[in-house]
Amino acid sequence: YGFPGLNPGDTWCLCAVRWLQAQEDGMAPRVHLTKTHIKALEVIPLERLKPYAADLN
Predict the structure, then answer these.
(1) In this predicted structure, what is the pLDDT of residue 10?
(2) Contacts (Cβ under 8 Å, ≥6 apart) of 35
(3) Is the sign of the CA dihedral 2, 18, 46, 51 positive or negative?
(4) DSSP state string for 1-33
């Protein structure tokens, strides 16, 4: 399809179920909580996302 792939620092959309699977496998990417849809919390508790937050200081 001509997709050149991702580079370090790129961001992308990942569904909550796949993020949870990656987290359980020890490979979860950082999360921009301010850009994450609130419905993701129906799948992943906020406390589980917070350690991966890219936008909290």
Answers:
(1) 86
(2) 55
(3) negative
(4) -------TT------HHHHHHHHHTT-PPPB-G
Helix, strand or coil, per DSSP, at residue 36: coil
* Residue 30 · residue 53 · CB < 8 Å: yes
Task: Give the pair of three-digit tokens for residue 38.
Answer: 């609130």
The whole-number pLDDT of residue 12 equals: 85
Give average pLDDT by consecutive 10-residue segment, the chain, 57 residues: 87 92 95 94 96 83
In DSSP terms, which residues pair with 31 in a beta bridge? 53
Q: How many CB atoms lie within 10 A of CB 36?
A: 19
Q: What is the pLDDT of residue 11?
A: 85
Tell me the one-letter amino acid at 46. Answer: L
